[in-house]
Amino acid sequence: MDPQVPEFSSRMATREQRAAQRNAMNMKGRLAYGGLAPGLVTCEILDMSDTGLRVSTFSQLEPCPDLFSIEFLGLYNRARRAWSDGNQIGLEFIFEPN
After folding, report:
1. Are the C-beta atoms of 4 and 33 separated by less than 8 Å?
2. Per the CATH hierarchy, to which homologous superfamily does domain 10-93 belong?
3. Domain boundary assignment for the chain
4. What pLDDT was estimated at residue 22?
5. pLDDT tens digit string along 51-86?
6. DSSP structural state of residue 27
7. 28 and 72 in contact (C-beta within 8 Å)?
8. Residue 12: in which H helix or E strand, if any?
9. Exposed, middle or buried by CB within 10 Å (0-12, 13-18, 19+), for 58?
10. Does the CA dihedral 65-71-72-78 come out positive or negative?
């Protein structure tokens, strides 16, 4: 391996594929998931963009759901899981046509 060429990682590829600039955050939120008996967990919003956010939960969700409702600052948004790694989850906002 050439020491002049940086090693490729999947995290680098993820950053390059983002549709919008992410802004660092440090605020609490709540994730709701599930159907008739929904789960509700507190999370920390680590960063956010116009298209999604990255959150950290205090314990790993097993299995990690595909769909969430997220509440922060009195606002509610629907989101789908783009990825998960341990207790961190990347969420993409779901925008519904009017």
Report:
1. no
2. predicted glycosyltransferase like domains (2.40.10.220)
3. 10-93
4. 78
5. 999 999 998 998 999 999 999 999 999 999 999 999
6. E
7. yes
8. helix 10-17
9. exposed
10. positive
